[in-house]
Each structure stands twice: as C-alpha cells, then as structure tokens.
Amino acid sequence: MLLSRRATALVHASIVQQLPIKNLFARIRGRISDRILGSVLSSPPASVAAYNHQSFPIVENLNYDFSMEKGVEESQVAPAAKRQRTDDGPATKGAAGAGVGAKEHKNGAPMDHRNQKGSGRKKKFDVRIQMMRHAVKRNNLKFAINLFRDLLEENVKMDTSLLNSLMYLACGAEQWERYARGLPLLTAAEAAAEATEADGRPGDAEADGDEGQQQQRPGGQQQQKQRPGRPVMPEVPEPEGPPPTREELVAAVDELWSYMKTAGLQPDQGTYLALARREALQGDPEGALQWVQECGKKGKPVQLRLFHPAQVGYCLRSDVEKVHAIDTMIASHSLDNTEYEFARLLEVIAAAGTYAHLRAVLMRMQTDLNELAPSTVDYIAAFFEGNPAAQQAFAPVDQGGCPGVAQRPAGAGDTAEASAGPGSWQWEVVRDAAVTETGWCAAADASVKVVDLEDKDWEAFVTAIAQLARTNMGNRAADFDSYVQWYERNGPYDILVDAANVAFYAQNREGGGFNWRQVQHMYELLRQRFPGKKILVMVHRKRTQDEVAQAPGVPEFLGLLRRNKSFYYTPPGANDDWFWLYACVRAKHNGLLVSNDELRDHIFSLLRPKHFLKWKERHIAHYSYVSHNPNATATAQLGQLFKLELPRPYTACVQQLAESGAWMVPINNGTWLCVRPVRAA
C-alpha cells in the first residue's frame, strides 16, 4: 500500500508538472528500487554469522545512465539496463527498442545496445565485491572467503585483481613472514612500529598486480566515496576470534588459486608473489623459487619482493649457499639489493657463514646503504658474538684472515706479537658507541671516514639522470640537450644553488614571495666562503621575467651572474630539479648543492637508491638565517644573512677502519655499533 500511494502521488505530480511519461516511469522505478534495496541494505548485519545467512542481490537496476544534464534527480533517470539506443539517437523503452531503427546482427536479429562496442556498457555491480576489498583492508580473511564462496556459488565472475587481493590476505598479508618463521603475530600498532623501524625495507603492497598502490595496514578503514545509484555498503566487521592458522592460510590460497585456474584468469606478479609466500608457509623455499622462475618465463617483471619467500626459507635452513645463489639471481635481473635483502644475507651468515662471507657483504653495504635498522645490525653483532668463524679474521691472510686485522689490530704492540694467531685476539662488540661531530670514535680509537660513490657509479648516475630528464620532458627533450651542451662549454661547476628554494625560504608570511635579495646574499656568502669554487645559480626562466626581477639591484645582480657564467635559467615547463642534479653529479666528488629541499619528490625515486642516497648524504649543504629577525634580509650586510650547514666530515655507512681493523656500523636511531679486535683473555 505504501508503494501504491507513492506511485499515485508521482502520477499526480507528473500530470500537474506536465512531465514526459518516460520520466514518470523512471521516477516510479527509482522509488521501487529504493524501497526494496533500502530494506535489505540500509542496515549492516549485526555479526558475521548474521551476514552469512543474509542474501544480497546483484544490483542490476541501479546501473543508471548519468549522461543527462546536471540537476535531474537520480530517481528520474531510467535504468540503463532497460533502455536501448536506436539509430535515430533517442532512447526507447522495453520491446519497442527491438523494432524499427534498432541495430541488427548480420542475421537480422536485434542487437541490444549494451553489446555494441563503445556503447558504454556498465558492468553489473555486486556490493559483495566492494565488501571483499574492504575485508582485505580490515584483515578479515574469514569474512572475505565467505563472500568469495557466495559469489562462486552464484557463478559471479571475479577478476585477477580481486583474486590477488584475497590471496595476499590468505598468505598472512604483512605478517606472512612471521607465519613462515613461526613467530607470534603482531597487533596492528606493533606492525606499524616494526615497519617504521625497518626504514629501508620495501613496503608491502596489496598484491593486486598494481605495484604502485600501497596497502593500508590491518585495522585501518579507508573511506571511499559512495557512487550515485549504488546501495550503501554494509560495514565490514573487524576479525573475530583467533587469527587463522598457517594450515588455514594455505588452504585458502589453494582454494583461490584453484578458482583462478578454472576460470582461466591469467596470473601476474601479485599472483606469483602469493604463491611463493604459500610455499614459504609450508617450509618449501625450492617451491617459492620456482614461482620466481615461472614469473620470469611468462614475461612478467620480476621484483625484489618475489625473492623474499625463498630467502626466508633458506635462512631458516641456514643454507648459506642457496641464499647467496638467490643474491646472484637478483643481480641477474638488474635489481639492487635493499636493506631487506642484505639482512637475509647477514642472517644466514650469522648462523653458518664465514668471516670472508661477512666481510664481502659488509663491503657491499658500505657502497649501497647508509644507516641501518637495529634488527639488521643485530645480525652483525650475532656473528661476532656467537659464530666461531669470526676468529678467521685473525688468521694469516693466505688462510682467510682479513688484511690489516691479522697483521695489526687495535692495541697491538709489534707486528710479530699481533700476528701470533687466531688464539691471541678476539672481537668485542660495543653497542651505542659514540661518534663525535668530527667523526672520532673513542671505542674504535680512530675516526670514521668519508665514503663516496666510486668512479663507475658516477658515470652510471649521471647517465641515468640525463635519460630520465629527457623522458620527463617528452617532446621538449631538446631543451635539456641544449643545457648539456652549454654545460660542456662552461662547466664543471663546484657549487649549485637551488635559487627558488633560497628565494622562498621563510617567505610563508604576509608580504612574502620570491626574494631575489636572499639569492644575492647566498651567492655572496658562497663567494666569500669558497673563493676558488665555480658557482652556478639555477632558476626557472619565468623568475627572470617577474616584476620582482626588476626591483632595485636585481638587474645588476643578474648581469653579474651572466658575466661570470654563473647563471642558467631552465625553460618553461621543465622541472629544474633535473638540471641542478645533473650539474652537481657531473662535478662528482667536488659537487655541492645548496638547498633545504629534502628531495622527497617522486622523481628521485626513479633513480637507483645505491647512487642517490649516497650522493644525498655527501653533497647537500643546508642553510638557515643567522638571525631570526624577519627583516634581516633588507638590513643584513651582503653575504651575512645565512649560515651554512655543510655535510658531515664523514659518511654514516658501514666501514672498516684501517687503523684498528674495527667495524663501524651506523644505526638509524643515531647510535653506532663498534666491533673491535682486542687481546684474548
């Protein structure tokens, strides 16, 4: 009766307002759909059990055509599934669409417009698909699998992206490794803290084939906009009861993988990652490695995290040879190790490796990484404290001893005494070792040194920058080529000034803006501080054409820069970051960038971390005001406005000190681990 009264009211309103009859029927159908779906979907089930006994329809009649003018009510729009488009353009209703003007197949049968190419056919929307994705984000495997089985029973098609998300969850999500190792699971807060500590470890993304999307941590709730015409999604509950066991996870992955094969879905990187993790859960690193190889055979890009399940499995077996073989495979795919991959090497070496193994890995880490997570450093300490092979360092060099350590470790008297054999010396681990601003470490009785890129790395780095710059600039790549030619004629330059960064420093205030006077102060400071260095000021071209560029003193300053060949403006539409980065890297060890930019822009993530991070550590000078007076720009003597914060006189990376043979390992909490040779008791 309620619907009848509502329909009657709509008929009356249409007569009064003289609405077209098709709009009338559209409004009636909309009201009926709202009433039916509102009673089913408006209130979420009270529990998982309640949901499992509730049937949600596949919503076809809500696929509205929203191509009409704005302002038309949703209930006035006819469902797209009920409308057909004719050759004449207007839409007709129901069976009428199969009459005159309807498109036909070759055999003369009428063809529904939804099957026409480019007709904008809309897929059936099933609210349970969206609910499954939210179940993945809430880490509720039981709920997600129940939804999957419901859809499977109703022959609802599911794609690879959705199945990858479910398989990601079924492998243990971000805690798959704790499952594989048999460790207690973490709470959401503990998992977030662990991820923060492992700063260099690649984040785990939802394995849906889209490698650029970051997976939300378990327990998070991601807000999504409600699309018009779709029912309100019932809230996905938090997981109830104990977490699934390892056996339950494996069974769930098997069930999902079986569906993918039966449905003919093509696996991608996310699928292979889930299958490799499944093997790790079963303690089968050989099987995990086979999925890596299968991914490569299928022509899919092999990513670092695809190797992780096999690495973990072999670490648990203390199989040094196999972990090193995987390390070689990673290099064969032109991939660079991150801290995670190095940590697996250190883990297996600490358990069953030799000193030669450890030293080789630490020397690679010196080149590729900077500060390390405490958990990574613990493996280094564990080797020296618990692996008898650490004593090999004190043997003669031809017997595997370390040059320098075997001959004269810290505190040795003469060479003969120092070379008395492995039994004369031992390693001592000093945690929380202090390093002064000058690099001196009392525990090691020596100073840590500057470690910069090697010559071959400089060439590879500058080539990569130039290639990315040209790609980034597209059809304007010739502008960058012109800049390179200009640099060849006038370079190299020792100091590069990011003029925009300097000009806008502390200008986030009333009356602030691009300040050429600050750039002039910085240039004069650098000339006074480094009289023999060539300086290059770089800025966007538009800054030379602004009104502020005509302020008193600015034209004269720009003229001075041009006469000294100390000025280059980047062309319109170009990212000046590529220009000053190229110039600074071309200067190799002598290059210094003056900027407070933290260089977190996404473009820098395109560069190899082993090059970019080491360069960033050594070749950026920050600055600040000498005085906190906001009016100091106008009153300070030229060159006295700023103070520079130059890079440290040492590099915070793993290094062995030649004077004592001690190993110095920086930790990302600001402390150091010192492992020094001392006389045996």
Record the SSE blueprint.
Blueprint: H1 2-17, H2 21-41, H3 48-52, E1 83-85, E2 91-93, H4 127-137, H5 141-153, H6 160-170, H7 176-181, H8 188-197, H9 246-263, H10 269-281, H11 285-297, H12 308-316, H13 320-332, H14 339-352, H15 355-368, H16 374-386, H17 415-418, E3 425-433, E4 440-441, E5 446-447, H18 455-473, H19 477-490, E6 495-498, H20 499-503, H21 516-529, E7 535-540, H22 554-563, E8 567-570, H23 576-586, E9 592-594, H24 609-618, E10 620-625, H25 632-635, E11 642-645, E12 655-656, E13 663-666, E14 672-679
Parallel strand pairs: 6-7, 6-9, 7-8, 9-10
Antiparallel strand pairs: 1-2, 3-14, 4-5, 10-11, 12-13, 13-14
Helix pairs in contact: 1-2, 4-5, 4-6, 6-9, 6-10, 9-10, 10-11, 10-12, 11-12, 12-13, 12-14, 13-14, 14-15, 14-16, 18-19, 18-23
Task: Report on this structure.
It is built from 25 helices and 14 strands. The chain is of the alpha/beta class. It has helices spanning 2-17, 21-41, 48-52, 127-137, 141-153, 160-170, 176-181, 188-197, 246-263, 269-281, 285-297, 308-316, 320-332, 339-352, 355-368, 374-386, 415-418, 455-473, 477-490, 499-503, 516-529, 554-563, 576-586, 609-618, 632-635, and strands spanning 83-85, 91-93, 425-433, 440-441, 446-447, 495-498, 535-540, 567-570, 592-594, 620-625, 642-645, 655-656, 663-666, 672-679. α4 (127-137) packs antiparallel against α5, α13 runs antiparallel to α14 (339-352) and α14 (339-352) packs parallel to α16. Residues 1-6, 10-19, 33-119, 199-203, 205-224 and 410-420 have low confidence and may be disordered. β9, α24 and β10 form a beta-alpha-beta unit. The longest helix has 21 residues, at 21-41. It is 43% helix and 9% strand. The protein has a six-stranded mixed sheet with strand order 8-7-6-9-10-11, with helices on both faces. Strands 3-14-13-12 form a four-stranded antiparallel sheet, with helices on one face.
